[in-house]
Predict the structure.
Amino acid sequence: MAELRGFRLSYHLLRLILLLLPLTTTFAQLSVPGGGGICSDSIRCEKGCCSKDNQCGFTPEHCGEGCKSNCDATADCGQYAKPGQQDCPINVCCR
């Protein structure tokens, strides 16, 4: 019976970890200025350019001089989107 309780505890702990794991990634990305995430010479940005300071984003500081990868990336909408795609649908803030 004790083994069964131990199994249940392990099972529930594993479920909790798997549930919370995506949140840690989200908070890590939000804590970076611009909300774009962190990159390096070997880790590319999911979206945006990888700056010389290892941060992802779409600003000239990210995509200009010293850019490491994805240097031609553009935002989906907003100031750093391709010409003609700057309007943000339903007034959401775009980067």
User: Anything to note?
Assistant: Helices lie at 2-30, 60-63. Strands lie at 49-50, 56-57.
